[in-house]
Design a protein that fits this description.
By secondary structure, this protein is of the alpha/beta class. The chain has two domains: 246 residues, Rossmann fold; 147 residues, Rossmann fold (3-Layer(aba) Sandwich), CATH 3.40.50. Helices cover 42% and strands 18% of the residues. It has a six-stranded mixed sheet with strand order 9-11-10-13-14-15, sandwiched between helices. Strands 4-5-7-6-12 form a five-stranded mixed sheet, sandwiched between helices. Strands 1-8 form a two-stranded antiparallel sheet. Helix 1 packs across helix 2 and helix 3 runs parallel beside helix 5. The N and C termini lie far apart (50 Å). The relative contact order is 0.11.
Length: 411
Amino acid sequence: MARDLLTGNAAAAWGARLADVDYVPAYPITPQTEIIEALAQWIARGELAARLVTLDSEHSMLTAAGAAAATGARVFTATSSQGLLYALEMLYTVAGWRVPLVLVNVARAVAAPITLEPDHNDVLAARDTGFLQIHAETCQEVLDSILMAYRLAEHADVLLPAIVNLDGFYLSFTREPVDLPAAGAVREFLPAYAPTHAQFSASHAMAQGVAVLGGSGYTFFKYQMQRAAEVALTVHEEVAAEFRERFGRAYGLVDGYQLDDAEWVIVMSNSFSTIGRAEVARLRQRGVKVGLLRLRVIRPFPHALIAELLSGRRAVAVIDQNISVGKGGILFSEVKSAMPTCATPPLASFIGGLGGRRFHSEEFDQIIMALREAENTGGSYEPHLLYTETEYAQLQGMLRIAHGPKAGVEG
């Protein structure tokens, strides 16, 4: 095992290299392109025995990825933001083919307005496609999650493709210490892909992606996918246990920090959870019994585990780095749906980090104040927008310029 300073993008490339992938269909988009560039260099130097092909769009890229996976190749690709949305049609198709592959999404906010920095509307738009979703907090976790994702996706009882998500810029271009496992050790954990369910060849005739007339047949196929995703919760724990035994790093469906005696819990995901941990530590020093629950595997959604960890708390805050316009935070609704009515603590919804905006300490102070208030009000679906007082004044001014003197924002 070697240790190096790697960006999140470089860690993703190393994950694909250590997985010994066969085929890399690609289309460049910021901030994902560095991943493909690294793989292209290794292939050109003969350090990775794979074929990389640049397609004419992300839609074509995912089509090629699914077709190659159906032949028995181990396939890796990556995209971001508008690229993921352009490929959305094929995400449903590839998942329906039940061919495992790994797609890295380097999260970037979706236009308009245009930005290069991250939030999670891109990846969460794909949550209903049938792809498994693993969301990484650190560069180390990016590499490790790719290896685990192949084991999970290729498991005979799962056979669903997987997305590994990392935040653009905050993780994709941030260098962190990363342990690179030895190739031989990875090969023992992740043997060569040898599918038996879908492998096109001249001597092995089969049909894939056939038309199903009548709703009953279609329903059956979708129900199979649902059951496979449910099984993936158990398979993930088996894979994670073996990964910990071999490499010494533990990854659960969720990740807790200071949860054991926490009276209040803040729920987050992805790289900004590191900021959340620092704020929890600061609040603990002030005597506030708060903990953090990071959502790591978002598809399949671990309802039972989340309910177990959040039940009995005084109040829970869910911070969404996304917004479903007209509804609010996507993950807030999902967390709320996981809670049994009889044991649900008051839940409060917060939206922040859109377009890569950083969180600030005073906002976590606001969250604690809101949680104390929620204990009396019982919580609400109405989301709180996280902002500082300075930003509030600036936003008031911007809205007045855009919409006239009556414009304003609600706290």
